[in-house]
Amino acid sequence: MNHKNTQPCTVPKSLWVFFLSCFKISAVTFGGGYVIVPLQKRRFCDELHWLEEDKILDLVAMGQCAPGPLAVNASTLMGYAMFGLKGALTAVVATALPPLIILSIISLFYNFFASNAVVRAILRGMQAAVAALIMYTVLTMAWRLLRMKSSFTITLLIVFLGLAIFSKINVIYIILAAIVVAVFSYFFIRNDIKYDTNQKKKKDSEQCDEGRK
Fold first, then answer.
1. 13: alpha, beta or left, given left = phi > 0 and alpha = psi -120 to 50?
2. Which of 9, 55, 118, 161 has a Cα at 20 to 30 A from 143?
3. How far apart are CA 135 and CA 75, in angstroms?
4. Are the beta carbons of 68 and 52 closer than 8 angstroms?
5. Whether the Cβ atoms of residue 58 and residue 90 lie closer than 8 Å to each other
6. First vs last C-alpha separation in the chain
C-alpha cells in the first residue's frame, strides 16, 4: 500500500540547484510574471518538495503587492524563504540574467528579428501557450481559495473579480483594498480568517508530528 509522503522536503536543499532552477525557469518563461508561477510550483513543490503549494501561492501574492516584475519578486521571496538573504540574492541574479542575455543578443540583430516573418509567427503562436499558463495560475489560486470554504474569502474573491472586470480601477488599488479589508477583518471582526489561520497552523503541526513518527 502506498502512503503519501508527509515530509516537507525529500530532496536536500542546495543553493546551486536553486540557482540553476531559477535560471532555467526564467530562460523559458515568456509572456509575463504569471507564466512563471506554474513552472515554479512544478519545480519547487512537485519535484524538489522544498515548498508547499500554499506557501508558493502566498509568496506569489506577496510578490504581486511589491513593485517590480512579478517573476523576480516571487523568485526572490522563495529564495529568502528557503535560504535567507543569500537565497534572495541568488534568485535575483538567476532570474534576471536570462532576459538580460537574451535581450542583449536580440538588440544586436534587432532588424532581423523585427522583419522576420518566421519570428513573428512564432511569437503569435506563443500567445496561446502564455494565455493557457496564465489561466492555469488563476484557476489554481481560485481553487485554493474555494477549498477553504470561507464565506468571507469567497465574497472578497467575487467582489474584487467584479471590480477588476467591470470597473476601470487600477489593479494596484484593488490589491491594496483587499489587503486593508483583510487586515481590518482579522483584527476587528471574528470571522473566517482567524479560523482559516488556526486551521492551517493545526494542519502544519499535525504534518510535523507525522513526519517525526
1. beta
2. 9
3. 20
4. no
5. no
6. 18
pLDDT of residue 96: 92
pLDDT of amino acid 5: 44
Does 86 score more than 90 pLDDT? Answer: yes
Residue 33 burial class via C-beta count within 10 angstroms: exposed 0-12, middle 13-18, buried 19 and up: buried
Q: What is the full DSSP assignment across 51-115?
A: S-HHHHHHHHHHHHHSSS-HHHHHHHHHHHHHHTHHHHHHHHHHHHHHHHHHHHHHHHTHHHHHH
Residue position matching grid coordinates 522544498: 50
Report the distance separating Cα 91 and Cα 22, nearest Å: 6
Q: What is the largest CA-CA distance in the chain?
A: 63
Distance, in Å, from the CA atom of 82 to the CA atom of 43, rounded to the nearest integer, reads 14
On whether the CB atoms of residues 129 and 34 are closer than 8 A, the answer is no
Q: Do 22 and 98 contact (CB within 8 A), yes or no? A: no
Tens-place pLDDT, residues 24-71? 999 888 766 778 888 888 899 889 999 988 888 888 888 877 788 888
Residues in the chain: 213
CA nearest 82: which of 60, 51, 107, 104?
Answer: 51
Percent of the chain whose pLDDT exceeds 90: 20
Q: pLDDT of 6-16, one tens digit each?
A: 444 467 889 99
